[in-house]
Amino acid sequence: MMQGGADTLDPITLEIIQEAMISVVREMRANLIATAYSSIIYEAHDFSCVLMDGAGQIIAQAEDNPSHIFPIPWSVRAMQDRFGADIHPGDVFLHNDPYTGGTHLNDIAMIYPVFGDGRLALFPVVRAHWGDVGGMTAGSISGKSTEIFHDGVRIPVLRVANRGVLDESVLDLLFANMRVPRERRGDFLSTWGTCQVAERRISEIMAKFGVDTVQEAIRRLLDRAERRMRRRIAALPDGDYVYEHYLDPVGSAGEPVKARVRVEVCGDAITVDFAGSSPQVAGPLNSGAAVAATGAFIVLKAFLDPAKPINHGNFRPITVRVPEGTFLNARYPASCAGSSEVRNAAISAVLGAMGQAVPESITGDIKGTSNHVYIAGVDPRDSEPFLFYEYPAGGTGGFPEADGNNAVRNFAEGDFGSIQPAEAVEHEAPLLVERCEVRTDSCGAGRHRGGFGLWRDIRLLADEASLSVASEKNILPPFGVCGGMPGAPNQFVVVRAGREVAPSDTPGKVAGFRLRQGDVVSVRSSGGGGWGDPLDRDPALVLADLRDGYLTPDKARSAFGVALRGRQVDEAATALLRHELRGRRLRFRLVIAAESSGAIGKRVCGLAPEAIARLGVREGEPVEIVGPAGPALRAWVQSAPDLLADSVRLGALARDILRVPEGTALEVRPLLAREGNR
Fold first, then answer.
1. Would you call the peptide bond into 333 cis, given omega within 30 degrees of 0 as the criterion?
2. Beta-strand pair 491-496/520-524
3. The pLDDT of residue 2 is above 60
4. For 585-670, which CATH class?
5. Phi first, then psi: what are they for 62, rounded to 5°?
6. Which residue in 2, 94, 181, 617 has the fewest CB atoms around it within 10 Å?
């Protein structure tokens, strides 16, 4: 055995200890996948593992979802605040409370203390999505939830094992309030076993190197990551970078929900401030403060230090402010079922702001929603309840070097499956997967286009079932950047007897819609936003997408300006068509007014009535204002008869977002499609 003190720690030993801890996390992942009961874990990988130190700092993670991991320090601190010194070897704690570090209630964190030399050394933590935790709809997540009680069983930090002995009465109480309790209990035991595997491996590392050496290695690794991140930040230009991102309206006649962010770069530190965001809503689009901070951390790590291992030192130079009472830091009893959508809103907002600071790294917007889809009922094969759950991936954004990817996970999601295999779905539930393909024409057009979304049709074979959906970007699609176009919005419909039926009065927000035998749930995920002017795209690349079946000739013509002769590009006709399409773009001179959107309202843009008519939009509809770089700014049309027909009036903050002087001619384009998107 190799023992040594902290003063003997050399660089090679430091790297060995770092990789050993990352290896522990990877073994945790493998163990959970091999032993979990529900397919959402063993097929879709909706879980994450991490090692924390005694101070609640992230020490090691692997390919897991940062959205699961980054809030865990809040959970560990909540446990320490509650139990203090009353923590012992063999204790097991559960936590899912969104107001104190949880995400949505389905994500259950298991915190497991590991001791060395009689001292609390590390916490292996697993946050796994349990398919159902109670609540008003099967699966617990619904687009119609309005309070936390609709979301399921809320677990403050709760000790469920004391010195290795499970409290069966507490577990009985929890599982009695959850659907399909056999799966819930099985996933709990699988997670507990995974933490015990981690305990054995950590004990082996501490026995080999010594507890003091391991603790010193952790300190140095954290400090090293901090220094590296500070160097990256110091290379940025100092300044304030602002962006606004909007979620779909809450309710059939509601207002859009705004995530406003200001990113301040000062020396080797960054402050991210979400002041000016919308207040919490009477719907599922709320979260606790940890979720918005997570969104900021994800983008900043991806922008500034994507290649190196993640630990808590990366985040020491970053301060995140999330005003209480906003939808990003909601108060009890707000529903937080849509916390994944809230996190993605924070990601999109910070992505837009950082695109101003680091324009060479900007990408088109991602799918930006979890697309929770639940089908639940009774399986006629065994009269047992079934619960199908998945979250279909969409396209990723185009970027300066290449196109986005089709129907895959993105930088914010970790090692999740895009979908579950048809064989797994049909084995576990009375469902038939009839279609699973790339969604034609769904990309955001650009010089480098966004990726295409997914089209998946699932037929119900049981007599009846219920459908619940919680999704975003069904009305306001993923944005393009640097002149790129938005991707197609998400779409969820039920096909009944050959006709499409809307399962809700609010797109993407469904709660317990009654399905009949033979109904087809059609899931069509969004494409990623495009990068750059689509009329600058190489026509040969457009032709390749046509031949692959990703684009139709109509889309190639209208979005990319590519004309065909037979199965080849007509170069002369394409040049003429692109010249014509450029000439149709409408530009308006920027007029700055007093900030009109206030602290919480949607941004409005004033246009003369004749300008509104030329754009082909209606008053109150959203448009995009396209700046010279970065993402487009979204605003809602307001008639301004006092304006000249060649002008657009925006509040003063819009100038900071677009980073152009007053009087600049800016393209304004409609945002809502007038016909259905395939």
1. yes
2. antiparallel
3. no
4. mainly beta
5. -120, -120
6. 2
Look up residue 465 and give its two tokens: 């079932």
Amino acid in the structure at residue 289: A
Q: What residues does 379 pair with on adjacent strands? A: 384
At 442-471, the pLDDT tens digits run: 999 999 999 999 999 999 999 999 999 999
Q: Which helix (H) or strand (E) holds 356?
A: helix 339-357
For residue 599, the model assigns a pLDDT of 45
| Cα-based angle 330, 243, 263 (whole degrees, multiple of 5) | 80
The number of helix segments (H) and strand segments (E) in the chain equals 15, 29
Question: Residue 10 and residue 659: Cα distance in Å, rounded?
Answer: 48
Burial class (CB in 10 A: 0-12, 13-18, 19+), 378: middle
Residue 678 has pLDDT above 50, yes or no: no
Of 187, 194, 189, 199, the C-alpha closest to 168 is 189
With beta carbons less than 8 A apart as the criterion, state whether 368 and 247 touch.
no
Stretch (H or E) spanning 173: helix 168-176
Query: Which range has highest mean pLDDT (61-65, 487-491, 651-655)?
Result: 487-491
- Burial label for 35, CB within 10 Å (0-12, 13-18, 19+), is middle
Is there a contact between 607 and 650 (Cβ–Cβ < 8 Å)? no
pTM score: 0.93
Question: How many Cα atoms within 13 Å fall on the side-chain side of residue 290?
Answer: 23
- Sort residue 482 into left (φ over 0), alpha (ψ -120 to 50) or beta: left
> Across the beta sheet with 491-496, what order do the strands follow?
431-438, 454-460, 520-524, 491-496, 499-501
Task: State the Cα–Cα distance between residues 394 and 454, nearest whole angstrom.
Answer: 6
Question: CA–CA separation, 170 vs 325, rounded Å?
Answer: 32
Our measurement of the distance from residue 603's CA atom to the centroid of its chain's CA atoms, rounded to an integer in Å, reads 23
CATH 2.40.40.20, the chain: domain bounds: 585-670
Residue 217 confidence (pLDDT): 97
Residue 6 confidence (pLDDT):
52
pLDDT above 70: percentage of residues in the chain: 97
Mean pLDDT for the stretch of residues 138-152? 96
Percentage of the chain exceeding pLDDT 90:
87
Q: Which two tokens stand for residue 66?
A: 């940062």
Compute the average pLDDT of residues 381-404.
94
Q: What pLDDT was estimated at residue 250?
A: 83
How many whole angstroms separate alpha carbon 652 and alpha carbon 660? 11
Computed from CA positions of residues 476, 479, 485, 489, in that sequence, does the dihedral angle turn out positive or negative? negative
From 474, 503, 506, 502, select the one nearest 489 (Cα to Cα). Answer: 474
The predicted model gives 612-639 an average pLDDT of: 94
Report the C-alpha gap between 526 and 364 in whole angstroms. Answer: 13
Q: Tell me the residue type at 313.
A: G
